[in-house]
Amino acid sequence: MTKIRKGSERGRTRIDWLDSRxxxxxxxxxxxxxxxxxxxxxxxxxxxxxxxxxxxxxxRDMEIVTYLLEGSLQHKDSLGNGSxxxxxxxxxxxxxxxxxxxxxxxxxxxSVHFLQIWITPNVQGLPPSYEQRxxxxxxxxxxxxxxxxxQPSDGAVLIHQDxxxxxxxxxxxxxxxxxxxxxxxxxxxxxxxSIHLNGQxxxxxxGVATDERSLEIATSDSAEALIFDLA
Length: 231
Known about the structure:
Blueprint: E1 2-5, E2 11-14, E3 18-22, E4 40-48, E5 53-59, E6 63-70, E7 73-77, E8 82-85, E9 89-94, E10 99-104, E11 112-119, E12 129-134, E13 145-149, E14 157-158, E15 163-168, E16 175-179, E17 185-197, E18 200-203, E19 207-210, E20 214-218, E21 223-230
Parallel strand pairs: 13-14
Antiparallel strand pairs: 1-19, 2-3, 3-4, 4-11, 5-10, 6-9, 6-11, 7-8, 7-10, 9-12, 13-15, 15-21, 16-20, 17-18, 17-19, 17-20, 17-21
C-alpha cells in the first residue's frame, strides 16, 4: 500500500505574517480523513515574514520537532531556554504536563521557512523538556540520517514514542535504500525538490504513506525528504 497526499491538496492558513500549509487537520482546517498518520499528528510547512512570529502560547502532551529549511528562528520557552535554530539544527520540545513558548523570525529582510512536526507521545504527563542539536545534513546523501528517535543514539534528539525521523538528500543519479521492519509503516514528506520512490514521482510538498518493506529513493536533480518510521 502506497498512498500520496499531494501538496496542492493540503489545508492552508494565510494571514499577513504567516503562510502555513497543513498536511493534516490543524487549527481552522479540519478534514476528517486527514487527522494524522499513526503517531504522526501534524506536519505544517510554515513561512514566517521577517520580524514577525508566533507569540507565546501553550502546548501539552505532544512531541514537537522543528526542521528548518531557510532562514533562522528564535525560540524562547517557560523552561528558560532561549536559542536560535538554523538549517542543519533539529529542535525537539516535549510539552508533557505543559510548556509555553514563542517562535520569532529575527531577520529584518528574510522570511523563515520550516517544517513543524507533532508526534503523540507514548506516555502522557511527562516533565516538559527541550533539546537542540546540529547535524551535517550532507550525510543524508549517503544513507538515511537519523534525526530523532526513542533512544538518544547517533546524536539524534530523543522523542518519547516508538518513532524515528530520518533525512535523505539523494543527489543526481544516486539512490538511497530504506528498509521497513514488518508491521511498521512509513510517511515520507518531500521538503525540497522531487524524488522517485520505487519509481513513482513524488514532488515537493507531497506526503506518502507506505507499508512497502523496501524503499528506493532517487532523484534526477537534488532533493530533501524526511522519512517517518512509525510503529
